[in-house]
Specification:
By secondary structure, the chain is an alpha+beta fold. The chain folds into two domains: 4-158, no CATH class; 217-358, no CATH class. The protein has helices at 4-24, 30-44, 55-70, 92-99, 161-172, 181-189, 194-199, 205-228, 235-242, 247-262, 267-274, 277-285, 289-294, 298-308, 311-339, 344-355, and strands spanning 80-82, 85-87, 104-110, 116-129, 132-143, 150-153, 156-160. It has a five-stranded mixed beta sheet with strand order 3-4-5-7-6. Strand 3 and strand 4 (116-129) form a beta hairpin. The longest helix has 29 residues, at 311-339. The mean pLDDT is 93.
Length: 360
Amino acid sequence: MASARFQSLIRQVRENCHIASAGQAGQYSLCGLILRLRAMYKWEHGLPPWREPDPEMVLTWVEGRERHWENLEDRAWQPLIWDGVHFDPFGVAELNERLIPQGLAYGAGLARGLAPTFFLGELAQVRRQGEVTILVLDQELARDLDGTPALCQGTLIYARKQALAFFLWDRLSDPVQQNNRFLKIALEACGLPLARLLQNPDRHLAELVALLEAELEAVIHHEIGEALEPSLKTAFPFILEHFPQTRAENWIRGLKDVLAEVNEWGRLAYLIRERAWPSLAMMLALRPGLYSLLLPELEPAFWELEATGDWEVLDMARRTALGRLREVAADLNDLLAGYGIPSPETLIAIQERYITPLGF
């Protein structure tokens, strides 16, 4: 990575990452922003996720970063130049055609709230599963605040090992998680009691790496499920385009995620095939808030599996949930087709029919 053209590309992508971070910062809660800033600081300074930096140094860095972001308001995205050719920063396919043979992978897209996100990393692996291509990134050379561990764009999936490590450690070390019984089950099944891990993570490095590898596979299969799920191909982009940063966006994202978990190609089917008990417990430990509302079958099936050892119980719950969720998706498609042109009335109908009954 020492050549001038590599270093030039890294600088260009990092500049767009700064612009993206400036726009993303206001979308997070205070807690979410602090977590992301801490991860960004560690990444920039070459620290592993479990190594805590000096608070004063982090505070000084954050203040400088915020001043820099203020200067980037209204700054346009910079084109990316590689071998004298200018590329649109969202032109992922064209740029990756040239970078992948060089051992790099570039990503760009829209995160939550349609906020742009960019990253560049060392390419660890290229996989192909049917029509799906999976790019596994290792060390990252440019990234923004978003730091999403995996991203699906059509039939292209990015799996970011370093971003996943930061994401996972932040959840493991969160005091709120200390009494999470699913987390305790997951870690004990890996021979990794949480208290000992937090006390001396360096001593448990081998177990941590094994945990990360297992979670990487689980995350990849979630994204495969998302790439191949047919039921929201029209409704999902429609709601994101017309009703961004609303409860409807949060709900449709949650619906898309749980469909990806329970469909024929997704994470849960993979975990059942592999009898991956620790990753199943981890899935429940770290599930987003809407999962409990959208996927109520999962937790009872987990406890029955623990009691009986019968994985068919879990697969039956998966299939039941899949049928129910696809009926919701079909009903949503009918609702949107009935309204035709998006309007405030469309948003109200979505709220009343799907969101209010959840108590969300």
